[in-house]
Amino acid sequence: MKKQFNLNIQKPCGESFDNFQKTQAGGFCQSCQKEVIDFSEMSEREIVHFFQNQAGKACGHFRAPQLKAYTVIKSGKRKNNFALLGAGLMGFSLLSLLNPQKSQAQEKNPPPVSPVNHDQASHQNGYLQKQKELGLLEGLVLFEGEPLPGVNVIIKGTHWGTVTDMNGRFSLSNVPDGSTIIFQSVGFNTQERVYKEYALDIMRVDFKNCEMRLMGEVAVEEIYASKPSIWQRIKNLFR
Amino acid sequence: MIRLVLFLFCCGIGHLQAQVSDFEGVDFRKADSLAALYRGEDLSRLPFLTYKLTAPLPQAVEKFRAIYVWVAQNIENDYAIYLKNKKKREALPLGSPELQAWNQSLQSQVFKKLVKEQKTICTGYAYLIKEMANLVDIPCEIVDGYGRSVQSNIGGKGVANHSWNAVQLNGKWYLCDATWSSGYFQLPERKFVFDFVEGYFLAEPELFARKHYPLDEKWLLIDQAFKLEEFLNAPLIYKDAYQYQIIPQEPREMKLNLKKGESLTFKVKAPSDFDPEDLTIQKGFVATRQTLNTSFQRNEEGVLEANYTFDRLGRFDLHFVVEEATVLSYTVRVQKK
User: Fold this and answer.
1) What is the pLDDT of residues B118-129, one digit of tens each?
2) How many CA atoms lie within 13 A of A89 on its CB side?
3) CA A29, CA A36: separation in Å to the nearest integer?
4) Shortest CB distance from B152 goes to which of A217, A223, A236?
5) Would you call B284 an interface residue with chain A, using a CB distance cutoff of 8 Å?
6) First to last CA, chain A
7) pLDDT of B206-246, one tens digit each?
8) Paired residues of B286 in beta bridges
9) φ, ψ for residue B271 (rounded to 5)?
10) What residues 139-198 of chain A have any CB closer than 8 A to a CB of chain B?
């Protein structure tokens, strides 16, 4: 299963990384009393790995080309990928650009990383906002705590959707915000959920057993016949 | 213009359509052809199947028709589960923990068989109709109750043994029975024959109630009082009564105990365009039927009436017949004075 996340800096900070006191992971920023992690030397793979495991807020020092979309290819080993990813999404916000002149120009909406003077603005500091891919819906369907494969997951009003896999999981992309998602499988009560684009948790659905009485009747082609007595049967023979 | 032609067409074969008159102007042929188009599809992608059956149809009643016809023509009655379940339901009291335990264990088996073999009992049909209708936002409920046939609920205290559906169309509730619309079992081979019965689709509640008594009486959908006891002891009607819209009125009881020489007046409701001469009464058993020497006339209230004097001793069944189809039965015992 592939996943994507974006790294970008919304509000760069004005501190100079080179002035920080060196630490094991990067440097210490006096103004906000935090360790700034040096990502500038990390490979793409190391960055992906970092964000899979990182929880809580952190501050980072980047080269400009590193602020882009990353693709994560899941190994499928860990159970709680989703929980970690959710935590990892939280809490990267931005401090400043390395270059003071550039930081003045970045106010509310920092422009995407455009071709700039490589020497000056090639490195950036700050908290990161990791963006969730918009329109992506991922989820899990369970019955009595066990994953349920083969559940139909449909976007209401369309003939578009998917089916849960062996692990009860599913994924749909480009789902319009506010869509109603239908979860259906014969033998269970169909459920609905509303998809919110900005929700960070996966969509989890617990199926319950149908509460039904099984009545059992079928259609039989028979005309009523009361049992004739032996005498009547004999009489009938002579009719 | 086409509407008018269709309307006349529908009227012309009116006696074949035992549907509620509310939908007389609707042409169900498009819905029926969609149902035929998707014959053989399985149930694993139910929302997609439902979408395909209904998306091209403008009105809710047409969508429901496509769903209903598809289910009736693709899902088979399951005799094995019927027998197994019948014995249990007759032995265990309704609402008892033993019956609930039995129900639980049977349920997963029923659903597995439904998806795998497209074979099920009445509750499976009712479940499917409800799920598919709800997927296209048509309010629909499962109604449990007493189903009446030769094999069940003639006299006695009653065994709740059947499920059917109530569906809301244009703000009004209607009744239908997909299990019995599907076809029938040929006995003794127990071979199921697909044979669509129009009469159970949106049937007149008064007629429907003669073979379906709901556990929750609100689903009777009729104004007059009709109690379970009357239901259990009334003359037995068959599916062809729905085809011709024949509803017995008098006598109200199926089992008639008479004295020799006694007369009875039989009263039966029938549509205004029904020819009284088409209805005859036959006496006797399956192989040896005789037609009674009497005939029906329409009285001032528009009800068909026939008189007969029972001047011979004996025990026999009376069958009301229209064009070789038996529509209802009484059973009679004539004794000495």
Assistant:
1) 999 999 999 999
2) 18
3) 7
4) A217
5) yes
6) 81
7) 999 999 999 999 999 998 889 999 999 999 999 999 999 99
8) none
9) -60, 155
10) 150, 152, 154, 159, 161, 163, 182, 184, 186-187, 190
Distance CA B9, CA B19 (A): 15
- Give the other-Cβ count within 10 Å of B150's Cβ: 15
Instruction: Select from B111, B129, B140, B318 the residue whose CB has the most chain A CBs within 10 Å, as the one to mutate to test that interface.
Output: B111
Looking at chain B from residue 96 to 115, which residues have their Cβ under 8 Å from any Cβ of chain A? Answer: 103, 106-108, 110-112, 114-115
Task: Name residues whose C-beta falls within 8 Å of residue B143's C-beta, 6 or more positions apart in sequence.
Answer: B126, B163, B164, B165, B166, B175, B212, B214, B216, B219
The residue to which tokens 């809710």 are assigned = B60
Amino acid at the residue A210 = C
How far are the Cα atoms of A74, A77, A83, A89, A132 from residue A80, in angstroms, in the given order?
12, 9, 5, 14, 18
Query: Using CA atoms in the order A222, A223, A227, A231, what is the torsion angle rounded to 10 degrees?
Result: -130
∠ CA A136-A137-A143 to the nearest 5 degrees? 160
Whether residue B11 contacts residue B46, with contact meaning beta carbons closer than 8 Å, is answered with no
What's the CA gap between B178 and B67, in Å, rounded?
A: 10
Q: Give the residue on B whose Cα is nearest the Cα of A219.
A: B184
Q: At what angle do helices B46-54 and B29-37 cross, to 10 degrees?
A: 140
Type and span of the H or E element at B46: helix B46-54
Widest distance between CA atoms in chain A: 122
Write the DSSP string, B86-104: HHHHHHSPTT-HHHHHHHH
Chain B residues 137-166 with CB within 8 Å of chain A: 142, 144, 147, 149-152, 154, 160-163
Largest CA distance in chain B: 68
- pLDDT, tens only, B55-85: 999 999 999 999 999 999 999 999 999 988 8
Task: Report CA dihedral (B77, B78, B79, B83) to the nearest 10 degrees.
Answer: -120
In this structure, the strands spanning A137-143 and A203-207 are parallel
Spell out which residues of chain A touch residue B239, defining contact as CB-CB under 8 Å. Answer: 219
Distance from C-alpha of B171 to C-alpha of B216, rounded to nearest angstrom: 20
Q: Does the model's pTM come out above 0.80?
A: no
SS3 state at B247: strand
Flag if B184 and A214 touch (Cβ within 8 Å): no
Report CB contact under 8 Å: B151, A220: yes
Chain A touched by B54 (CB under 8 Å):
no
Q: Residues with Cβ < 8 Å from B24, sequence gap 6 or more?
A: B7, B10, B11
